[in-house]
Amino acid sequence: MQGTVDSQATAIAVDHAHEHPDFRVLGLLVFLISESLMFGGLFAAYLLLRGMHEQWPPEGTEVELLVPTINTIILISSSFVIHYGDVAIKKDDVRGMRKWYWITAAMGAVFLSGQVYEYLTLGYGLRTNVFANCFYVMTGFHGLHVFVGILLILGVIWRSRRPGHYNAHKHTGVAMAEIYWHFVDVIWIILFTLLYILTRF
Amino acid sequence: MAQAQLPLDTPLSLPEHPKAWKWYDYFTFNVDHKVIGIQYLVTAFIFYLIGGLMAVAMRTELATANSDFLDPNLYNAFLTNHGTIMIFLWVVPAAIGGFGNYLVPLMVGARDMAFPRLNALAFWLNPPAGALLLASFLFGGAQAGWTSYPPLSTITATTAQSMWILAIVLAGTSSIMGSVNFIVTIWKMKVPSMRWDQLPLFCWAMLATSLLALVSTPVLAVGLILLLFDINFGTSFYKPDAGGNVVIYQHLFWFYSHPAVYLMILPIFGIMSEVIPVHARKPIFGYQAIAYSSLAICCVGLFVWVHHMFTSGTPPWMRMFFTISTLIVAVPTGVKIFSWVATLWGGKIRLNSAMLFAIGLLSMFVLGGLSGVTLGTAPVDIHVHDTYYVVAHFHYVLFGGSVFGLYAGIYHWFPKMTGRLLDERLGILHFILTLIGTNLTFLPMHELGLKGMPRRVAMYDPQFESINLICTIGAFVLAFSIIPFLINIIWSWNKGKIAGDNPWGGLSLEWTTSSPPLIENWKVLPVVTKGPYDYGIEQRKGSTDEDDDEKE
User: Fold this and answer.
1) What is the distance in angstroms between the CA of the first residue and the CA of the last residue of chain A?
2) Of B339, B243, B355, which is closest to residue B294 (Cα–Cα)?
3) Does B516 sit behind a cis peptide bond, omega within 30 degrees of 0 on the bond before it?
4) Residue B471 Cα distances to B58, B260, B454, B489, angstroms
5) How far apart are CA A8 and CA B263, in angstroms?
6) B193 reaches A (C-beta below 8 A)
7) How many angstroms from the chain centroid is the CA of residue B224?
């Protein structure tokens, strides 16, 4: 914008997308505030329901810990892995970025499979009781976000197949996928604390 | 995304768009913020007419105590969808989507919003939302009121109720997308020559509105999704017999829906702060006070929601806390009201239709605000809860406030949007009819409420019949008041007097471009040299006599 004002004599009308800096990362961060509040609403509803019940979770709907703990370790590690991808693209290493992003997507997929395995082996379903309602809706909602994150990562990988699409100075898409992935990770940590740790100990 | 990621050394391309939009461009996925603004305004206005017809049908039913015009179930569907349409498909999209999109980039000196395609997507979520609501009538229409409290909403017309939920979630998504866009645009895309204290107050209001929508809308989405699960997938979040709790829904719902009141009035306050100084030919009184009071309303407004739930088994400490916080919101609102009155004071007031509606808003909103203060106080609220007193209150705020403000905005910026002036005689007729209709319809409702007539019923005690008849006559006056407005808009759009770039002598940036503005707003971006409200400041410096005159 500054450029246009300064060069009035030789003003050329330019496509406005090129006139201002890239605000997409900022836009994503603002959007994530909104997303946090969505999870915040879910957590608040969960805590209110929990506060109403003497025994939480009710008999027969305890959570298991082994698979979710492995899952947690995988998801948290994947946040470090995806960061290596970001480091790589900043060094102009597209191949390295692709490698780390593939690994992240695979870890995400393992997490989702673990989640499905947990659903199948728990022995109670969505409708069993209020705790089960909360458990499935909250983990399912988070799983949906993991799924979207995987799609974003695959999108980045797909776009990066064209040489020069991302480079050391131009990798907004890479950064946005990473930020979203970290967000999903942080939400999981809260969710894991609320649904697993605080119901078992 | 691909476009912005072209290599940096690519020569800047010339714009690919045509010189001016054709009529059919308004029916496409167009990324120009002005096209999107008009799309929002026109779509919202159509829904306003639909919601208005529902209101007229309900008032016709209520003319007599017995149920003789509408089937009671249809009456319930109308009252639910009247509220929903007016809030989610008229006031919110028209004020935020319509005026916000049209004016914010023009006022801050940007060529478009920060994310034009996101913006277009946000608009195009609205027509499907409206279509879903209308289609829900095939399944009986949602009948649990716009608040859709369980358990009523989980057992009545469940298919229609589910469609209603999806419609609201769509509209909410649109609203979140719009908020992200407004926040980034206002924060980052002012022309470099504009200081923060030269930002038009409408933009401050839009910033506060967007922050509020950003934070509160997702919570409503959660509440509604859980309701959707309760209705369709056998969960029991809100089913007390299975361990759920209905009050949780009310908390989630009102955490959004009380701020929604501010979503509907803050942009309107912004419109007021633009219209009043331009037509009073005076600098706005208390620029900073108005700007910060918007942000204060935004913050405090998030902590008052329980005043809708004083009768939901709310513990006394909660009633006390939320009574106090509710009364605190009245302070920043009062700051604005007094600032506008002070701006009008001693101004060279131009009493055209825009200004008439602005002054009308001022008086109507004060009435609505006063009944709001009484309702915000727990002891009174428990007495008049769910009576017509509440209906009277929020119609003074939302009709006398928001809708008057939207009309003021339309009369004020129609010349900018179309290049033609609206006819003043029709405008004044419209104002007079609207003012009479508003008071005839909603003023008697205070009395009905205090006497104990419950809201949301098709049949009532015959002792209320005479007052109800007055309300119904008022509703018909309101319905007819639309006619001069419609004639005015349609006729003036093609045949009205040519407005010129700046018919009102406004100082904010939207008046520096042509009417209607060029596709990218300006050939060369404007440079801000004075504040948006510096009316009469030059003369005042020149002669102290005039200054004295103005003080008198």
Assistant:
1) 57
2) B339
3) yes
4) 11, 26, 15, 28
5) 39
6) yes
7) 22
Task: Check residue A138 and give its pLDDT.
Answer: 96
If you average pLDDT over residues B180-188, what whole number do you get?
96
The residues pairing with B420 across neighbouring beta strands, listed in sequence order, are: B498
Domain count, chain B: 1
Amino acid at site B352: N
Whole-complex ipTM: 0.90
B contact residues 220-239, partner A, Cβ 8 Å cutoff = 221-223, 225-226, 229, 233-237
pLDDT tens sequence across B64-120: 999 889 999 999 999 999 999 999 999 999 999 999 999 999 999 999 999 999 999
Q: Which residue has the tokens 């919570």?
A: B219
Query: What does the buried/exposed string (b/e) look like for B169-192 if buried means 16 or more CB atoms within 10 Å of the residue's CB?
Result: bbbbbbbbbbbbbbbbbbebbbbe
d(CA A109, CA A149): 10
3-state SS class at B387: strand
**pLDDT computed for residue A10 by the predictor:** 41
Q: Residue A170 phi/psi, 5° resolution?
A: -140, 90
What are the C-alpha distances in Å from B513 to residues A10, B117, B230, B338, B516? Answer: 20, 24, 53, 32, 8
Q: Considering the domain boundaries, does residue B5 fall inside one?
A: no
Longest dimension (CA), chain B: 79
CA distance A151 to B527: 44
B519 touches chain A (CB under 8 A): no
Record the tokens describing residue B437, joined without a space. 């209709």
Secondary structure of residue B296 in the 3-state scheme? helix
For chain A, give percent helix, strand, coil, nearest 5.
75, 0, 25
| Domain residue limits at B158 | 34-551
From the CA of A80, how many Å to the nearest CA of chain B?
26
Overall average pLDDT of the B450-466 stretch = 94
Closest to B248 (Cα-Cα) out of A87, A138, A49: A49
User: With 80 as the cut, is the pLDDT of residue B3 above it?
Assistant: no
The CATH number of residue B355's host domain is 1.20.210.10
B533, part of any domain: yes
- Evaluate whether residue B406 is within a structural domain: yes
DSSP category for residue A61: -
Residue B206 is assigned to a structural domain of this protein: yes
> Which chain B residues are within 8 Å of A35, Cβ to Cβ?
218
First to last CA, chain B: 59
**Closest C-alpha among A18, A178, A177 to residue B116:** A18
Determine the residue of chain B that is closest to A165 in CA distance. B5
Nearest to A100 by CA among A176, A174, A28, A15: A174
Query: Which of B178, B217, B226 shows the shortest CA–CA distance to A141?
Result: B226
DSSP labels, B347-385? -----SHHHHHHHHHHHHHHHHHHHHHHHHSHHHHHHHT
DSSP B72-106: HHHHHHHHHHHHHIIIIIIIHIIIIIIIIHHHHHH
Residue of B nearest to A42 (CA): B222
Domain ranges for chain A? 21-200
Nearest to B180 among A2, A27, A133 (CB): A27
> What is the CATH T-level fold of the domain A21-200, as seen in this structure?
Four Helix Bundle (Hemerythrin (Met), subunit A) (1.20.120)
pTM of the model: 0.91
Q: Tokens standing for B155? A: 């057992």
Interval A130-161: pLDDT, tens: 999 999 999 999 999 999 999 999 999 999 99
Question: Is-contact B29 B120, C-beta < 8 A?
Answer: yes
